[in-house]
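Example (one chain per record):
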Amino acid sequence: MSHSPVDQFENFPPFKSLAIKVVAFDALWHEVRLLLPMNEHNVNPGGTMFGGAMAALADPIAALACASYFPTHEIWTKKLALDFIRPGTGDLQLLFQFPSDAVEQIASTLKEHGRARHTFEYGFYQKDGSLCCQISSVVALRLPAAGSDRLGFRNKT
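Predicted structure:
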């Protein structure tokens, strides 16, 4: 079984039922594009993309990105807000970009306070490139407490 980042995304249990496809993945998370297909499992009664499917895909993305940079820390989504700008009328593409200065900002805050929060902004786009849904995700990071078995998105090795 392959353990490529693409396979890990497409087979990540919370994403498997969404039938997502990786369109683009940069190992440094500079740009990640995920296709959320419109299908019978995520269409709402109005015939547009179910917001719950969008939220399920959006939720762990920023935390997973942070886990790649801070593998020894507990990391989780502290707050997730979706602003549904217009209905998703077909397949949607989630575009996440890790800001170039975010790692330095987070590391500095962790060093100073032992914990950090960082807000990431990303979105879902329709085929024509128009923004369908703006996402704001606040990610929390901290070193695990002594003896803690809580892993969050921390590497399990």
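Caption: The helical segments are 5-11, 13-16, 51-58, 61-69, 102-113.
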